[in-house]
């Protein structure tokens, strides 16, 4: 059956029996038209004849499923949260957010990102602009047809802040995502930066506490992470490439993923997932190559220490000459009246403060350079990644566009070659620049954390330009860690160093991450799982990976911290069955010891005592007696330091925190996700305990863990075989945030029982779906 475009000028036609030709998402009369095939769990397969119509289809279906999330993201990016969500004063987080975003609007940041040659590097290409324009049109088409007062999602039904979008709205939300790990992470410090007064600090500390600074700055990027495997021919049963994608992202809000399959025949054909509100696949696969991302350890901004002109704290010296800061006053409206802030910009970027360390004093101020603030290359980069035929071509895309804002890439192709690369946007802090331009008091901070503080009084300490870099100020591809392998590569949010244990990546600038240092328990488990699977020692049949075995490994829910220290911990608490908690109370450990002795060292639904060990780990109880060995980084350290009194204190603290909750409770009885009145049991656990399948559920005292806030989200285990891609996938929190949608909790229930949806890429795979629902969306005129 072929549906005629002329019959659907402003409407939707639905067919459920036959599957139209994939080419029937045809543009007409200069308008948009897209074919939507909703498969099981509401996953849309969208086909269109051009990128504008493809974007139209994406905007329409994402509005059907998540209009409230998109609308709220636009409110945020336009600095209007105070207006709509009840902020009452200058200390409100929404007010600070609005001030930050209103400044970006006043500075015309998004508009300036669109200026320049449309080559996908200096400015977005026509293909990407068409996608964005089409997405806006599709969203607006759904909103116009439905009406704000007839939306089925109570979160935004009838709300005045739900309105038609403009293209600049979408570009602003994109910019907001780009700066998440840079100026967005320092939002509060930028908003709070004001010239010193008599009551302010007279001077900054000459020897800052490197550990305290790193902890304060790293806390701003908490809440995101990931695991990924790229498996080559030597690691898979069939000799073809395979990828495991396992991003750990928030389960609520704008950073949720959305599954979809996008196709422009002959030009683009990619299945996977994107963040809600984005028109392009960001993690996924085409016919011959698949990829995922993990959050990189590389830094996204640098500090510049400014030497201020005496008596004028808004002027600073560069090469001995004074230079005035540029002041801009921004005002937002709140429930209690207007709030204004004056921001100060320098040649390096905005002035920011971290109280107690990076203070603005009469003599010194600090400005940051966020290298993603000008990143307008991301959607072009992901578009071209989706068109790559193998990992070598994919790397060429990464080299050209250098667009990944804060993530690594892990990939594999049908030929059986795997790729790891930290091809993210990284400030150009070379070893030579660090040695010459980081003042001595800040050298320990750089050595320990990669956080660079440069001398802003010297123009030769600016970031400069690598000849092979896409833009000035960032490290070029030749300075970034890359590894091709025919066995495997992996990353679980540690640095590049051990992406391939057989061929460690060493000698790169410190700003990218540490080398030859201990790896996290999650990284170690991720590597151990691969090595055991290849050796056939993990208890599963055979050797090597199939997608079924990869799924079993992913959801094996091993808790590596418990595997290493549980037995020693049980022996310790049996020898000394009481301990003093942090609050001074004496705690009986007998029941805890019994529960831990019966714990199966996993985070499965029927695991008893998993929550107790997790709370012990969160209290800092995993302290090792042996040392890290660089020659054995996966298996060291591994012995509990039973002589350290903090170990027993951590167990006592865990018992106290779990008061009112049985210490031997089944995980599935207390570890859930609430959907309306329904409580869905959730497996998985905290990365701090060494769980690969990360799930973060805050403890509610006396109750348990009733709501997931972060963790495993989109999971894809895909093999790139000779007959096309195959495998398994799931979106743990489901497609829609609307409680009245049929796709609000269905994949969450599926996840609870370790189920999966199949890869549906080929026409045969799509047509075989028993729940297929087909419709077309179209609009005349652009």
UniProtKB/TrEMBL annotation:
GO molecular function terms noted in the UniProt entry: hydrolase activity, acting on carbon-nitrogen (but not peptide) bonds, in linear amides
Leader peptide range in chain numbering: 1-17
Sorted UniProt keywords: Hydrolase, Signal, Zymogen
Domain of life: Bacteria
InterPro entries: Ntn_hydrolases_N, Penicillin_amidase_A-knob, Penicillin_amidase_dom1, Penicillin_amidase_N_B-knob, S45
GO biological process: antibiotic biosynthetic process
UniProt family annotation: Belongs to the peptidase S45 family.
Protein name: Aculeacin A acylase
Higher taxonomy: Bacteria, Bacillati, Actinomycetota, Actinomycetes, Micromonosporales
